[in-house]
Amino acid sequence: MTTLMSGGQAAIEALKAEDTKHVFGLIGSATMEMFDALYDAESINFIGVHDERTGTHMADGYARASGEAGVILAGQNGPGATNLVTGLSQAKAAFSPVVSIAGALSSGHVYRDAFQEVDQQSLFTPVTKKTWTAPSADRVPELFREAFRTALSPRRGPVQLNLPRDVLSGQAEFEPLQKPQVYRNHSVPAAHTDQVSQAAKLLAFAKQPVIIAGGGIKNTEGHEQAIALAEDLNCPIVTSPGHGDAIPFGHPLNAGQMGPRGNPVASRLVKEADVILALGTRLGFNSTFYTYDNINRDAKIIHNELEPTAIARFFPVELGIWADAPTLALQLVEALKKIKDRTTADQWTKEFQTERKAYLEKRDTDAVLTHPTQPSGLFKTLRDVLPKNAAITMDAGTLCLQATDAMNYWSSKSLFTPLDFGLVGFSFACGLGVKCAKPERPVVSLMGDGGFGMTMSELSTAVDHNINTVTVVMNNKCWGAEKAYQRDFFNGRYIGADISSPPFDKVAELYGAKGYKAEKLSEVAPAIEAALACGKPAVIDVSVDPAALYSFRRDSFKHRGG
Questions:
Q1: Do the bridges between strand 159-164 and strand 98-104 make them parallel or antiparallel, or are there none, so unpaired?
Q2: I need a labelling partner for 298 at 20 to 30 A (CA). Which of 56, 73, 162, 254 fits?
Q3: In CATH, which superfamily holds the domain spanning 367-560?
Q4: What is the CATH code of the structural domain delimited by 3-182?
Q5: Are 52 and 3 in contact (CB under 8 A)?
Q6: Angle between helices 85-93 and 52-66 (to 10 degrees)
Q7: pTM tops 0.70
């Protein structure tokens, strides 16, 4: 039996068929048919946002934390749609399954310089996995099915669906909509047995093996499989940058994040290993800067990725394995059982564990606890006070880059960063999405004052919808990364580096949230504890020493001689 519906009604029925729980969005006249249908959709919680960009970050955070698609609805074509671009670019860099929907110009007005006309199909194509523009009302459910299927298929990523006004208002007869399980893939690829055997032999006879666990382990919550392999080999596991939560902090084989933005212990392991198993990681920019400065040129690399084009893209490998990372880890455990007289890596691992213990102890003892607040002291305080089940979101910028490996992540999917897009203004909005996905977990968002100033209007969204996250604004009154480069490489010729902001604690109170001010480091822990217990969205404005600057990208300014 068919049902007569408008395209807008069919769009909401398609979202319901996908078991969509939350839609983040901003109302607009181009999609009124959808919003009217959404009014009656009791199973979908609509979260109205103040900017389509930040709404996309919320959908991104929700997608990463839940493992489901995050949905953002830009109600207006033209400017409403263009505001999505930054958020979708961010989601694409993170391989985050965001389904973005935008109203579009009426089909009959295209190419007439109509009001708010922009070529949305061309605009979104470079920043999404795929973009569609619906041609007619009867095609709406079909394109929604394809949008969700594409976003959630490996390698995951954001998609864009443009819905012209006449398509949403047009009517058609629709068959009952199918649930996604009837048109989705239900399996992941395992490695070929010959490749598993070769990889197992390389690892079994390695003297200094190391496993690099990346997004292929984190996003699948495959830490148990990766740990089982590491324990069998008794070898260290490092994590790729931004995925420091891929392996629980407390595990004795976990070395933390490697690479130019990681810690020295993990980075040394990758530089000295004789066999490297890259397990679900691209070995890309943040991990290596694409140079052998950060990975042993003489190591035999076993490169595993679910995206075949990522294998051996930047470094030649001994063996490339296209497979699901946790599945491969278990295959290797089974294959290793068949190998006799294996080489032991016990000495290599014992030395690493001694070095790791000393590094963590030094990290605490070297923390500067005096006034004005230094990053090391702030991070130690956060390590001491944050609950072990906290989810932590980060912005870009040097303070957050330092914090990424300075925090302890006790469970998988506890760290959410901009990753390769390096976006400032991401963390707070992302945290709201993470909290919607995991309401039982405390969510703490770290930001600089510049990034929070970009996005603090979403305090209204947090208050209106009781999304109770804690945002720690590390307020150093400047764009810290750029000011560090101007200091270190441009003779202190500062321009555009210093910024002013209102007192963020008082701004939070004006929005109806809770605000706290920490002028001294000793005030941070009580503020965190109060914020976590207050039952409202909370902002803690922490004064950080403006002179505590650090240049991360020294490689970019070698020509300056600094």
A1: parallel
A2: 254
A3: Thiamin diphosphate (ThDP)-binding fold, Pyr/PP domains (3.40.50.970)
A4: 3.40.50.970
A5: no
A6: 20
A7: yes
